Amino acid sequence: MAHTTVIPVPAMGKRNVNAFLLLGRRAVLVDTGIPGSGAKILARIAEHGIEPGNVSAIVITHAHIDHFGSAAELRLATGAPVVAHVADLGPYTTGRIREPYLPTGRFGRFLDRLDAFHEHAEPFRPDLLVDGPTTLYEHGVNARIMPTPGHTAGSISVLTDEGDLVAGDLVATSFLGMAHRRPANPPFHDDPAGNLASLRATLALKPTTLHVGHGGPLDPARVENWAAREQHRLERLAARGRLRTREEVRGIAQESTSS
């Protein structure tokens, strides 16, 4: 069986926003950057000998603008089907993220105030909707899609047979990748406890390397240690009644508006 290689494709900055190219018998692109990133991503993959027509599928890890922003553009350019989880279908078909964001800390609260994080993307309907584990063998890479909900309801990760985990925003590195080997939360999570449960479940599969949307790559042992500390932090927040999901926050806001 052909080896599957994971190649980072920077879509913004050196590591601030990453897409990834999976190279096996064919090529699969994971994530598409912010709106307007299509030409840059195509130029990056061309450096590895991949022309638009060589891309056999485009996998979107979740419905945030910096991951699906150029999906429609790249589908048109490559002719490749877009694969995504059904639970995030709404944002894909409207081109709008679900709001409000739920910041994971001060950096997230800062980013939430920036217009760029509330942009609209060109809407699209994924060609292949998944709702459970799904292989990518038919698209020419030895890898499988795994649902990893929490960051968003429809978040997915891709695990190659060699053990490389393309994790989207399951975990990140500090300050949108600027401290590129230090595990951290991304700026936002819809459900922090649910995301951490997904992260720990994927770590139990013993991946060799985590490739993340912001920064990276990350060593699994270091992520394990961080996840244990994060578990304690979330438990303390929950005990004080300060741990909420995005849906709970939105419900409170609606109640306040209607009262």
Automatic annotation (TrEMBL):
Gene3D superfamilies: Ribonuclease Z/Hydroxyacylglutathione hydrolase-like
Domain named Metallo-beta-lactamase: residues: 16-214
CDD domains on file: yflN-like_MBL-fold
Record-given protein name: Metallo-beta-lactamase domain-containing protein
Lineage: Bacteria, Bacillati, Actinomycetota, Actinomycetes, Kitasatosporales
